[in-house]
Specification:
The protein has about 475 residues and is mostly helical. The protein is built from 22 helices and 2 strands. The relative contact order is 0.10. One of its GO terms (molecular function) is potassium:chloride symporter activity.
Amino acid sequence: MINAKLVYKVIGSLLFIEAIMMLSCLLVSVYYKEDDIPAFLITITITVLAAIGLKYKGYGAENSMGRREAYLLVTLIWIIFSGLGALPFVISGYLTSYTDAFFETMSGFTTTGATIIDDVEALPHGLLFWRSLTHWIGGLGIVFFTIAILPSLVGGSVKVFSAESTGPIKSKLHPRLSTSAKTIWAVYIVLSISCAAFFYIFGMGLFDSVNYAMSIIATGGFATHNESTAYFNSAAIDYTSIVFMLLSGANFSLLYLVVIKGRIKEFFKDAEFRFYMLVVLLSTATIMYFLITHNDYSISKALRNSLFQVAAFITTTGIFNDDAAKWPHITWIILSLCMVFGACAGSTSGGIKCIRCAILFRIIRNEFKRLLHPRAVLPVKINGNIVPNQSVPTLLVFFTLYIAAVFFSYFTFTLLGVDSTNSMTIAISSASNVGPTLGLEIGPTMSWSSLPDIGKWICSMLMLMGRLEFFSVIVLFTKAFWKEN
């Protein structure tokens, strides 16, 4: 049976964290003396009362968690956080539809960055900060954040982490998960502060610097200006964004070894990172060629804009400094592939992840070798380590689930009247937590407000499934999950 009391207890504890997050946004609203103050006051009150009620229901729960509780807990946390996080938008009146508000908040926490707000500059500073903060907390995971600061909260924290973490291969920094969480969060904070500092030095205001830094390090995409980073028209800001997007797309365990331990050679030894950078370089070079030959871009502009968009799409950050809808259609295919690939496992990015792609290519290579040498033993190796046999079918199941979810959504959006190109790229963008889409009706610089409500709910579920890598959500809908034994 599901240990419901423990689930209530943990969710109640986490809701206090969300209330504290909203309190920081309330302080921003008070500082700027804007009209979203009552909305945050009411939402904080509702969240705290919900937290107290759930803690009461979970009083006396055993501090031991099984796998079923872990998977249920992770999925519920993301849904409840988004459900309550939507309230400030609705109560303040800046969004009149709860569907729109839930979509916006789910997009924030899952670091998708898709927005239904046509004019973000009309939002008060408190709501803008709340959008960016949902990215930043959701970047490494709500539960992972909690493990770092409240290690005694959950007895089964390792199970919870495995339900929320990304990638087929798990790397450990320290035998104690809470210590690893604190270490990775330290890297995350250093990157965030460094990114904000560079933005400020290169001409952004303090508020914009902090918001864009949170959005980029979390590979989210929410911006404080309608034109995203194109608003600043600064090469220094664009290249700063590129560097920090690419760093945020790297495995954070690898970043720990490089940034904290100073072992720079680890970058070049890591097979996934090499594959990731190879995709970035090839995609950038190809798009540069088409921008120079078809759009008459100068070499410097083509390099800057193509590298920026490739970094934004492959790391699933989704910010923009140019309108890719005006680029040749062949570049859309390249950017769509970047969406699908994603960056590295163990990063804040979405997508399939480069490690899975690298493993898949090695499996394909081995199958061709096996045709010539049927009796050969051909293990799949990554970084000199043999990938366990049980990981291969899991990998293939993941690809199947990803493709099935994308095509189901594609057909649904088409039935809802969305054009074919947009339907496919919206589905990929949601499942990969990218944010922008490619098309003419809903382009990479446009909001998703024209989607029908049912489409927004489908996207919200697809974002959640993509962020938790499908298994953690879909397992809840199996009969075996709810059986007593």
